[in-house]
Design brief:
MetI-like fold, globular, mainly alpha, single chain
Length: 554
């Protein structure tokens, strides 16, 4: 039976618009989740099942090495990040304000650049061993003992120095938000500095620390450039060797599933640890923490403790690369560098715009539609950030290659012209992988920014006749400009640094700055890799400084 009072015309269109937003949100969610689904499908339907062979040979070694690497990085990043955060948030010492921002600077340099710098400096032909041989008259490596630089401990050290800022940033915020009254009471009861940290500060900050350590460990699993250069065989290197060297995509997908299960277990453990420990602040305004001024040796010790990770994670690799770029200045004019810069700007820029645009559309569409299914899918779409780039590369390339072949066959049948590989033969597949990998950044920024806008503003715009799209462009976007710009920059920088997915998905002859650094460093031509590494670092440093500025303003 038709409703005689049902609205018609423009009013009816506006009433049905939320369904369109809901459909768009579902389509975007499906697009983001396709690569993960493709990995599981490939693993369940391999052309040649090598799983028993993997289980009997290399998989235990891949898994055990990955777990040891994750544990080492987790412990070291927790110690460095938490210790630095406690000193900066709770104490006054020389250089504290500058170091508070400088401790974030290692985020600007990819871990694989740190690995190349460390090997160049400490390897047999590097300045340290060369100076030792010249000083003591040694003629070969047989005359003295020196630690093996290309090893698992070196990988743990380099990754930890690169990733500790994730822990530091969250832990510092957690310490700064704590009430000063609790520390004053602990001090009145006779608790010293160490006991106040261990019994009061650390338990309250533990959820934030756990979240930062989880992110660092997920980035450890994602890493390829560092572990490959150090000769450490992990699950990620296993995906590359099984697929590219062994030619078995199904076996690579099965290893990728092990990675995804490992990541899921890590996320579950992190959430369970937070669920078991819950703390609430008093409803009344709390007294902020009063930073304790350190004197004498303790003050300079705190300065040194905060300076060491900055020197190791940023100054050292940047200096090594800068030295090579100065000594071999012709590397800036080397063929391929300009093309790599253009390719990087194109792909990372397109991915940033697509990622933030789609995330904004989906987040706003979920809010507009109010439907259960899109709301349930919204957090699931962040799984791409946890999935390593090698896993996403596998999940993107196989279905896109199948689609490419079908489209090419259809065009050939209709026109007699073979268009070739449209998607996988260009940088489109690479940009899509970046969108899936960093969709969580855009979604988190959009969701947080939308949540800060008072509901009265869009309601007033709707009362004046604006539709959902008009409200988004006229009300929300101007108020979200800062958050959107920061999300664009973060996705762009992460896209510039992404290596595993780029190595798997780049078309033939297509280099980005990240792949150029990797390729040249793998050939032991660090002077040719240095300019590209410095460009990545410079752009990353801009993002880090803006992040530090925004964090200081809160």
């Amino acid at each position: 039976m038709s409703d005689q009072n049902a609205p018609s015309g423009p009013t009816a269109l506006r009433l049905h618009l939320p369904d369109l937003w809901s459909a768009g949100a579902l389509a975007i969610a499906a697009l983001v989740l396709v690569p993960i689904a493709a990995v599981f499908w490939l693993a369940a339907n391999p052309t040649e099942n090598v799983w028993p062979h993997l289980m009997a040979t290399v998989l235990p070694r891949y898994l055990s090495t990955t777990l040891v690497l994750m544990a080492g990085v987790g412990v070291l990043t927790a110690a460095v990040g938490t210790g630095a955060a406690w000193l900066v948030a709770m104490h006054e010492f020389p250089g504290r304000r500058l170091l508070a921002s400088a401790l974030l600077m290692p985020l600007a340099i990819p871990a694989y650049v740190g690995a190349y710098a460390l090997v160049d400096f400490l390897d047999y032909a590097g300045p340290v061993q060369t100076a030792l041989r010249a000083t003591f008259g040694w003629s070969s490596a047989a005359d003295y003992a020196f630690p093996d630089i290309r090893s698992l401990p070196s990988a743990v050290l380099v990754l930890s120095l690169s990733l500790y800022p994730y822990v530091y940033l969250l832990a510092r915020a957690a310490f700064s938000e704590q009430s000063g009254a609790g520390f004053e009471v602990a001090g009145a009861l006779g608790a010293g500095a160490w006991r106040r940290f261990w019994r009061v500060g650390l338990p309250l900050a533990r959820p934030a620390i756990a979240a930062g350590v989880a992110v660092a460990m997920m980035e450890t699993v994602n890493d390829f450039g560092t572990v490959d250069f150090f000769g450490v065989q992990t699950l990620t290197t296993g995906i590359f060797s099984t697929w590219l060297s062994g030619g078995n995509a199904g076996g690579a997908a099965q290893i990728a599933c092990v990675v995804l299960v490992l990541i899921a277990a890590l996320v579950w453990i992190e959430r369970q640890s937070r669920r078991r420990r819950r703390f609430w602040q008093a409803a009344r305004a709390q007294r902020p923490v009063t930073r304790r001024r350190l004197e004498g040796g303790a003050a300079w010790g705190a300065t040194f403790a905060c300076l060491v990770p900055v020197l190791g994670g940023f100054v050292f690799p940047a200096s090594v690369m800068g030295w090579h770029a100065i000594v071999a200045a012709d590397g800036w004019l080397a063929p391929g560098l300009a093309r790599a810069i253009v390719n990087t700007l194109t792909v990372a820029g397109a991915a940033a715009v697509l990622t933030v645009g789609l995330a904004l559309f989906m987040t706003y569409g979920v809010r507009m539609a109010g439907r259960t299914l899109p709301r349930l899918l919204l957090p699931i779409t962040t799984v791409g950030y946890a999935a390593p780039g090698a896993v996403l590369g596998l999940g993107v390339l196989i279905p896109m290659a199948a689609l490419d072949n079908r489209v090419a066959d259809a065009v050939l049948a209709l026109t007699g012209h073979d268009p070739g590989l449209i998607l996988t033969g260009s940088w489109a597949a690479l940009a899509f992988a970046y969108v899936v990998r960093f969709f969580a950044i855009g979604q988190g920024a959009a969701d947080a920014a939308l949540g800060r806008i008072p509901p009265s503003l869009p309601m007033a715009a709707r009362a004046l006749g604006r539709g959902p799209g008009g409200v988004l462009t006229a009300v929300h976007l101007p108020l979200m400009r800062g958050s959107v710009a920061m999300a664009l920059l973060l996705v762009f920088v992460d896209g510039m640094k992404e290596l595993p997915a780029t190595l798997l998905l780049r078309p033939f002859g297509f280099d980005t700055l990240a792949t150029r650094v990797h390729d040249q460093a793998s050939l032991e031509r660090l002077s040719q890799a240095a300019p590209a590494a410095l460009v990545i670092t410079a752009v990353g440093l801009v993002a880090v400084l803006l992040l530090a500025r925004a964090d200081a303003a809160r």
